[in-house]
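Here's my example:
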Amino acid sequence: MSNAPALTAPPLWPIYWAEFVAELKKTFRQPGFVIPSLCFPLGFYALFGLLMPHRGSFDGTTWFFATYG
């Protein structure tokens, strides 16, 4: 029987958090990408989901919102 200590893995959440922060910084350094990627889906939802009336029992607003995700 060995008396070697058991190896334990470090917690993963600090690693994931650091990667998340780095990705946010990388993304927001490119405003030419951020602005269209945030504004176009919101604009399409407003155009098709809010401004166009739905007819019958089909709720187009919910469908458009779900498909833009």
User: Anything to note?
Assistant: The mean pLDDT is 80.
